[in-house]
Amino acid sequence: MITAGVIVYDEERMLAGCLESLAGQVDRVVVVDGAYAQFPHGAPFSTDATEEIVRCYGADWVPCPRDGDDGHPRAWETQMEKRSAYLVGDVGDWYFRIDADERLVGNLPAEDELEDGVTYAMRVRWAGQSMRPWTTCLFQHRGRMRYEGAHCALWSDDQLISRVGEARKLAGVSLLHLKNFRTLERVSAKRAYYAWQWPAEREFRERWRI
What we know:
- The chain has one domain (2-208): Spore Coat Polysaccharide Biosynthesis Protein SpsA, Chain A, CATH 3.90.550.
- The chain is 21% helix and 29% strand.
- It contains four helices and 13 strands.
């Protein structure tokens, strides 16, 4: 099984295109909702049509956490906690990581074409820009999967498996990133979050060279 994991927060403008690009490519889509504690937000959960869009496309919906005896909703502590919430499969299953403002271009390999234990990377193209970095995005559930240390640091048991330089590169398939199509309000909120996130992750990134 290949499960696509998507994290969202008020993504009614972006999400449908992301989900459409996944049609026929994966067996399951898990969408995790909610803001991060450090991300500028009002309600900790999406208040637009995000959930309705998810359900229209038949994807699984994971709401933001609830704490306390009254089940009061809260924001995710970090992006790592939120991304870890879509790692819901069994050992041997595959995950494809994609964000709401990204589009899958080309065809993912079929599950029987993927090699056990290998992590795969693909190109990311930013709309309107020529830079084409690589990102790890397709990986197998191997045991005790979680993001830890940095938002891009994926672990299986005690092994960091998301180093781009150690991943196998996929040809003929890429991610189109539509960050330039964000509203000014959302761009400002993301910049404010990144101003906190990158310094918070710097020591880990330098130590693990990611």
